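During the no-cost extension, the postdoctoral fellow (Dr. R.K.) reprocessed legacy sequence entries with the updated structure-token encoder. One reprocessed record is reproduced below for audit purposes.
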Amino acid sequence: MAQTIVSNANQTVLEAVAPHYWEQACTELMKNDRIMRKLIPKFGSGFLMTRGDPFVTLARSIVGQQISVSAAQAVWDRVVLASKKKVNPKNILALTVEELRAAGLSGRKVEYIQDLAEHFISGRLHANQWQEMDDESVIKELSEIRGIGRWTAEMFLIFNLTRPNILPLDDIGLIKAISLSYFSGEPVSRHEAREVAANWAPWRTVATWYLWRSIDPIPVEY
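Re-encoded structure tokens follow.
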């Protein structure tokens, strides 16, 4: 399953391919969960996409912390322009604090994205080993970077490494979607969300992606 997309940031045409497990996951989720049986056909033409660049995925996750998807995209587009349409550690560190702030980043997020760039340039990260490392080991290493906590690390596992069974319980959008789809809009605790998600294993990433789509038809990307 593949489709051609155009990146808003740099107008580069990309060929996107679904994760190898996507079709099997959708089949099993629809079989095991009544809500997924409705959601997946509704948004069945899409799938999780990765940009393949670890730095870009992590930088986008930092930009997206605690703001809406649309606001995060607007800020990211300005960061891309400031970086001469090539976001990489070298170009980020070449920008001044003022330039990054002008793009829409808070002072704290400027510190975070600069620290991220320094980690990549210094070689302190084992980026070439992440594919082979288990989920918790990747989360532990990423959490040593300023501004990257469990939520950001989980976004990386989903959007860069496309791990199939990630459940980001700190994600406001996921909790909202579970509330609307499973609890008629009533508040949902982490425990209740985890209980609902037990029915999705080992495809919790896929279920999360469809629940995100249920509240925002534009696919989430990092």
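DSSP finds twelve helices and two strands in the chain. The chain has a mean pLDDT of 89. The remaining legacy entries will be reprocessed before the final report is submitted.
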